[in-house]
Amino acid sequence: MWRLYQFPLCPFSRKVRLLLSEKGVGYELWRENPWDASDEFWALNPAGRTPVLYDPERRLALSDSRAICEYFEETVDKAPMINGTASNRAEIRRLVALFDENFFGDVTMPLLHERMKKRLVLRQPPDSRILREAMKLAHGHLDYIDWLIDNRTWLAGATMSLADLAAAAQISVADYLGGIDWAGHEQTRGWYSVFKSRPSFRPLLSERMEVIQPPRHYAELDV
Amino acid sequence: MWRLYQFPLCPFSRKVRLLLSEKGVGYELWRENPWDASDEFWALNPAGRTPVLYDPERRLALSDSRAICEYFEETVDKAPMINGTASNRAEIRRLVALFDENFFGDVTMPLLHERMKKRLVLRQPPDSRILREAMKLAHGHLDYIDWLIDNRTWLAGATMSLADLAAAAQISVADYLGGIDWAGHEQTRGWYSVFKSRPSFRPLLSERMEVIQPPRHYAELDV
């Protein structure tokens, strides 16, 4: 069985977990903290980042979350997530990159640093100026998602795609860390609450990262 | 004809240009500086980053360099660059991400900030401590490429792939900015000099970015 090296608040591991679950691929969770990755982990992935998916029987290690998603898209027919014409597929991949890079860099990464790494590793208080800036940038990203949902059923078009999984993964980590103010984002909230009720999403919402507690609305389905 | 929005030292635009040229796809260069992107450009790409490829006749805009490369891999049969079994393709995509994210973040991005943005926009001297750190990290990346070339003909396996284009694109920008010390990296140097002589690479090597001059060896084929 595949081993997924991850930690509960890794948004890229969450994206991969959503994909594996939607496609019905089984895996075991192996915990790997980003601040003290093991030698074994570095040997599996010279980039030193989660997620890594490893099949011990075949000695096959996959890393980089987009490469992992493309691999399962190519090898498992169920629940296609990079689908349609070449332009549709380019739009899906554009949005995945937007959430993986821009949303992550603007919102998720600073929240993880201030509210996870400082608390669990550095033993420092969070910098409220950086938190405010991340929450402000989150509004801009949610505005863009609102606009997408005004114009499309799902983020990249008529069907659910990897773009939805990538966005939900980033938003869920940001929401866990108290970085999402849902006021004024009815479209995104509606899309996200449909997502939260999916069987693929439920296990993620029930996990906790040590002493860090999410806000009360985090795992509720109707909020 | 496709318009490629780029600037001469954008490593992601260079990767796309190498791919388009290998595949025989024509395009026009449109200059877009990252520090003062036009409204027209933001409308084409909400992520605000080069490269963007735009077809005015079809009003089709493609952005994110990996999404662009996948699009042409799917639509143009010539010179396949994400080829082989699903595992081979995962290995190609893993390496592309390693160069696009780790090499870029460790080496190319700090060099661009210190030697391009500070010179052309901020009018500040470069920080020599940051330059030394970027060059030190470049050695680590070249060590890894040396190791790949010890074990494979091309970076991801037996044939040239998008991994080679991604690595050459990053290295060429870092080399232009004086960030690559080639001493001790014979394997990488051999691989790179083969690359520099390809028709797809020659136009890149002859371009200059305003007043910034590359070191003398930059465009020479036998160095």
Outline the structure in words.
Chain A has 223 residues and is of the alpha+beta class. In chain A, 55% of the residues lie in helices and 8% in strands. Chain A is built from eight helices and four strands; from the N terminus they run βαβαββαααααα. In chain A, strands 2-1-3-4 form a four-stranded mixed beta sheet, covered by helices on one side. The first copy, chain A, starts with a strand and ends in a 17-residue tail after the last helix. The model of chain A has no long low-confidence stretch (mean pLDDT 96). The interface between A and B is medium-sized, with 25 and 25 residues. Chains A, B: Homodimer. Chains A, B: GO terms for molecular function: glutathione transferase activity. Chains A, B: InterPro entries: Glutathione-S-Trfase_C-like, Glutathione-S-Trfase_C_sf, Glutathione_S-Trfase, Glutathione_S-Trfase_N, Thioredoxin-like_sf.
